[in-house]
Design goal:
The complex is a heterodimer of chains A (61) and B (832). With 61 residues, chain A is mainly alpha-helical. Chain A has two helices and no strands. Classes of the chains: A mainly alpha (61), B alpha+beta (832).
Chain lengths: 61, 832
């Protein structure tokens, strides 16, 4: 059971990394709009005609 | 070729029309869903199919959407679009001022040499597809490098290359696809709101992540206590829990400690005092037990408590900030640019309104908004103050009269002297009043605070006496028992009872399309006995259609419309707008001696002939004209709204309007009646029109020809009979009536002041949501009472048992956690 003296510190390091990532994400504004990405990901897929400015990228479909 | 197949599958979906677009009937506008006038014959070819359009505005918008290759919008949208207003030349001119560098300073950030960035408020968003369309369209403009629309706030962040495109061109392009965009300056308050939101979220995240670890360790400790565990491991785990709880206490729980400190400094006992006491004592005793190597630890209770309480406060705060966003729109009603005159009265100079000082002389041209409060020093004009006092008819003012910032100059140029600016103006005062009303705490929450304050004083007294009693009788057990009493009596459940239920129900209502701005509305909604509708725009589509023009023999239809439109051109009344629209291009006419009567009509002279336009009673009281009886007979059968145009001695024309009923109006009224509410219709319109509407919807009590004042008095009369009145309104002259009702709901399309003075704004175009809100309000109240009842019962039931020494501290901690959990879960039932 002495292995927990190794495993728990490892899990604590992981926890530290997770907390750091989350705090960075909040500071970066990734939580400012929780609804948008849910819609955006669906609708981007639906684009058949690209805006005129850009080249029609996914025209093969 | 898996991706290709998947793509093809999607492709077939595209070829369908889309649920919302397909639901629009043949005779209705494909863009906005309104009926298409028969003779119009406008259409736009969308994906090879000719789709009917109801007006030139919608046609232009649909064409712009097709031309930009974004026809997908019509397939994916989940709400019909708002009716396009058509391009207003004034708006185009107004946008050009945003290219002036001094003005840009307020709104635009420079990112390097030519890159610029600005935040835009978007108006006219009805569903997620609108946001998609805006993103696609703006991103497609040459020179725009990045665009991101926030779905929750409907704000767009745009970056562009100043060399390729100007801000005014971006704004005008957005106007072309049927939305309105204005740059806004996120002021310090909003910035601090954002910072506060992020800080709260970070605290919540820390409490959650560390809390999970503490919980996990606690489970092994509980299991170890059950099945046996080596003492060294046990001690290791306890130290681990202490270490993991520390960040939660030091970082996440600081707001509670700080607020409790403030309360104590003011010699008050607020909710945060017992909360911090419970957190502090539970943590201190657990830390003591860990260091000493004996006694119970309660780290799991501490972290869980902090997490739940932080979460409920975070959601409550989010709901409040969303409402604050609607106030910003009001701030936008002051003009950003104004014309300042040099003190000697000569040179004109364009300056930002924010830079005006008291004593400055300002030129206000017709159609412009008055930039600050002040006094007229030369000229006379009519001013539209509808935004400030709900009066839809412009008021005449001349030298020496007071001008209010935010009102619109209608007829003639004016010179004014600025008397007060910024925070001292009337419009700023209105904004503050609204903010105050929103910040005000819910009565139920106040009750919970009061109950908890008394309760905690009582509990502290009990803890002290229990400790003294046991110290005298069994000195060994006094700490253990006093601690158990304190933990058992922790009003965690009590303090979670109300906020969790309220944030759950606000979220529920928001997804149903209701933005609750004042928390007290939730409580009052539950007690509503009478529901009062303001006809225009609430039960009907809010877009009257000119049905017939009956003219006297010496005038033809075109002439009548021309005169009517000339008189009504500056009125914001919906019927006036229709008349102006129908008249088409206005002949230039000089209007003099304009006088208007609220809720009645307008009188003015054209070429020295007095003309009157208004409802029947206005014409009867202001001129000697009589409406020919055969006209009345002609329309009597139709039951419609009429506007009469007359000269001093005879009636020239009569215009009849119909406004079609919303499909869901009947559903709502039937629903309200089955809930046992009395439904009343109050309208400024004539008897016939109201009767037709009442018959169609099944309303038996309807009151006609009511002025805004009469409506307000009628509402107050109902309140004197101890009725609780819900007023549902729309349109400019509703604001005072809305304010007098116990609860008020403004429709999404209502004017800004009506929206800001209402307790609730209906954001979805879906009337039955109102009946649903009452059901949700009733459930919320029930759940709050259940929660408080349960919390008090648990606390009062457990204290005596703990006081006689029958509950060990660890058992008390489990009891505390479970009672809090029950309260949270009970509140979450509201979201279903």
């Amino acid at each position: 059971m002495e292995i927990i003296y190794l495993l728990i510190p490892i899990s604590l390091i992981l926890l530290g990394v997770i907390v750091w990532i989350l705090l960075w994400a909040v500071r970066d504004g990734q939580y400012d709009d929780l609804e948008g990405p849910a819609h955006r990901i669906l609708m981007d897929e639906d684009r058949i005609v690209e805006p005129q400015k850009k080249k029609p990228a996914g025209s093969a479909g | 070729m898996k991706p290709a197949i998947a793509k093809r599958g999607n492709h077939q979906d595209f070829n369908e029309t889309g649920a919302v677009s397909a639901a629009i009937g043949i005779g209705n506008c494909f863009h906005c869903g309104l009926p298409v006038p028969v003779e119009l014959g406008l259409s736009v070819s969308i994906d090879g199919v000719n789709r009917p359009m109801c007006c030139h505005g919608c046609q232009a918008v649909a064409e712009a959407i097709v031309a930009s290759g974004n026809t997908n919008f019509y397939r994916v949208r989940t709400e019909v679009s708002s009716t396009a207003q058509g391009l207003v030349p004034e708006f185009q001119r107004a946008t050009e001022v945003y290219d002036v560098p001094e003005i840009q300073g307020q709104f635009v950030h420079s990112l390097g040499a030519d890159m610029r960035e600005a935040s835009l408020i978007l108006e006219g968003i009805t569903c997620a597809a609108c946001i998609w369309l805006n993103e696609q369209y703006i991103a497609g403009l040459p020179g725009v490098t990045d665009v991101r629309v926030n779905y929750a706030t409907q704000r767009a962040l745009v970056r562009w290359d100043e060399k390729q495109i100007k801000l005014s061109e971006i704004l005008q392009s957005i106007q072309k696809i049927g939305y309105r965009a204005l740059p806004y300056n996120p002021d310090q308050q909003q910035e601090s709101h954002r910072q506060q939101r992020r800080l709260q979220l970070r605290r919540l995240a820390v409490a959650g992540l560390f809390g999970m670890q503490v919980m996990m360790i606690s489970i092994s400790l509980y299991a170890g206590a059950w099945s046996g565990m080596e003492a060294s491991f046990q001690q290791f785990f306890r130290w681990l829990s202490l270490g993991l709880t520390l960040p939660v206490i030091l970082y996440s729980a600081t707001p509670f400690f700080m607020s409790a400190g403030r309360d104590l400094a003011r010699r008050q006992v607020g909710m945060d005092v017992p909360v911090s006491l419970a957190i502090g004592i539970a943590f201190a005793s657990s830390a003591w037990a860990t260091i000493n190597g004996q006694g119970e630890i309660y780290f799991d209770s501490v972290v869980m408590f902090v997490f739940f309480l932080s979460a409920s406060r975070y959601f409550e705060n989010m709901a409040r900030q969303r409402c604050a966003a609607s106030i910003e729109q009001l701030a936008q009603s002051l003009p950003v640019v104004t014309t300042r005159l040099a003190p000697d009265g000569g040179a004109e100079e364009s300056v930002a309104a924010a830079t005006l000082a008291i004593g400055d002389r300002v030129l206000v041209r017709p159609g412009e908004t008055v930039p600050a409060d002040g006094e007229i020093i030369s000229g006379f004009s009519a001013l539209d103050e509808s935004l400030l006092n709900g009066e839809s008819i412009p008021v005449d003012k001349s030298v020496g009269d007071r001008l209010l910032g935010g009102s619109i100059n209608v007829t003639n140029p004016l010179q004014m002297e600025v008397k007060s600016v910024g925070a001292d103006t009337v419009i700023a005062e209105i904004q503050r009043t609204i903010e105050r009303a929103q910040a005000e705490k819910l009565p139920l929450a106040r009750l919970a605070d009061r109950v908890a304050a008394r309760f905690i004083s009582l509990v502290l007294l009990i803890v002290v006496s229990v400790a003294i009693f046991w110290w005298l009788h069994d000195a060994e057990r006094w700490f253990e028992i006093a601690l158990a009493v304190l933990i058992v009596s922790c009003p965690c459940a009590l303090s979670l009872a109300t906020p969790t239920a309220i944030s759950a129900s606000l979220g529920k209502l928001q997804s149903a399309g209701l933005l609750v701005k004042r928390g007290s509305a939730l409580e009052n909604l539950n007690r509503i006995t009478h529901v009062v509708f303001d006809k225009t725009g609430t039960l009907t589509r809010g877009r009257p259609r000119l049905e017939r023009v009956i003219c006297s023999p010496e005038y033809d239809r075109g002439q009548c419309l021309q005169i009517a439109a000339a008189l009504e051109q500056h009125s914001e009344h919906p019927l006036a707008r229709v008349l102006v629209q129908e008249a088409g291009v206005l002949e230039k006419r000089k209007l003099t001696r304009i006088a208007s009567t609220a809720g009645g009509g307008i009188c003015a002279s054209i070429d020295d002939v007095d003309y009157f336009i208004g409802n029947g009673s206005y014409i009867a009281s202001h001129s000697n004209a009589e409406i020919p009886t055969q006209w009345l007979e002609e329309i009597a059968t139709d039951a419609v709204t009429t506007v009469v145009l007359a000269r001093a001695d005879r009636v020239i024309a009569m215009f009849t309007f119909v406004d079609d009923l919303r499909e869901d109006a009947k559903t709502l009224i039937t629903h309200l009646q089955t809930l046992g509410k009395s439904v009343i219709l109050m309208t400024g319109d004539g008897d016939a029109a109201a009767r037709r509407l009442a018959d169609l919807t099944g309303i038996s009590d309807y009151r006609v020809q009511m002025s805004p004042r009469a409506k307000m008095e009628a509402v107050q009369a109902l309140q004197r009979e101890s009725s609780v009145v819900l007023m549902i309104g729309d349109g400019v002259n509703d604001a005072p009536v809305l304010a007098s009702a116990d609860v008020s709901i403004a429709m999404g399309g209502a004017s800004s002041l009506a929206k800001t003075s209402a307790d609730i704004v209906l954001t979805a175009n879906h009337l039955p949501a109102i009946a649903q809100s009452m059901i949700v309000a009733a459930r919320t109240q029930r759940i709050i009472y259940q929660n408080m009842g349960w919390a008090l019962m648990y606390n009062f039931g457990a204290i005596p048992v703990a006081a006689i020494g029958l509950i060990a501290p660890w058992l008390a901690a489990i009891g505390m956690s479970i009672s809090s959990l029950l309260v949270v879960l009970n509140a979450l039932r509201l979201t279903r």
